[in-house]
Amino acid sequence: MKLTTLIFPIIGFFIGIFIGYYIYKKEEKIKNRRLWGRIERRNIMRTISALVSAIDFKDHLTKHHSDNVRMYACAIAEELGLSKEEIYKIKDACLVHDLGKIGVHDYILTKPDKLNEKEWKEMRLHSLAGAVILKPFRFLDKVLQIVREHHERYDGAGYPDGLAQEKISLGARIMAVADSFDAMISKRPYREKLTKEEAICELKKHSGTQFDPKVVEIFIKLLEIKPEIFKRQDQA
Ligand SMILES: [Fe+2]
């Protein structure tokens, strides 16, 4: 056999090994980057939600408010058949939705009486402030949108942008119901907590004005048929 007939297969063999090794290394690098990205994202979310727990505690909300909102919102999102990824984003948004309250004066957060108009004005800035704080974290884009819109109303009379109906992201429409329900059944210094039945009446009353009627309908249905999934963590 001539040497020249062997040379090309040998070269081809080594080139194949080299390309295989190169691809393997590249894939390893991408996998590691993704893994670190995920770990980094989780750590950032944990840090932010720890901050929010501190705010919840300082506020007149129960310290478990964000967890309760997350539980209600996820149940609604699952019932609506949203994708895992969308549910994940709603989950994250629920945990950090009141982050912007960090910019609200303590005396407003802890005031034992109803807020006056000036104080409400400052309080209403919290959804926008939360979105501004989250802005540098590009991977939280969708979460940021839900945080910004969680006090928008279905009839367009909410804040900060006065969005209405489907202009409000579905995640924010879900969270509005979950957030309000948990607030209603929690005690405040200036009012007693509502019973579950009274809170359901309130949701029905404001369905189509404050809340998305479809979301309210699903939430009430879930409360009736699966009460066990709403094992709410109570005030500490
Ligand atoms: Fe809020």
The low-confidence runs, each spanning 5 or more residues with pLDDT under 50, are none
CATH class: Mainly Alpha
Question: Which CATH architecture is right?
Answer: Orthogonal Bundle
Number of H/I helices: 10
Bound molecules: fe (ii) ion
Care to give the gist of this entry?
This protein has ten helices and no strands.
Please write out the topology.
Elements: H1 3-58, H2 65-79, H3 84-96, H4 106-109, H5 117-123, H6 126-134, H7 141-149, H8 170-184, H9 196-205, H10 213-225
This protein binds fe (ii) ion (FE2).
Describe the structure.
With 236 residues, this protein is an all-alpha fold. The protein has a single domain, classed as Hypothetical protein af1432 (Orthogonal Bundle). The chain is 64% helix and 0% strand. It has ten helices and no strands. It has helices spanning 3-58, 65-79, 84-96, 106-109, 117-123, 126-134, 141-149, 170-184, 196-205, 213-225. α2 (65-79) packs across α8 and α3 (84-96) crosses α7. It is elongated and about 95 Å long. Bound molecules: fe (ii) ion. Residues 97-98, 126-127, 150-151 line the site of fe (ii) ion (FE2).
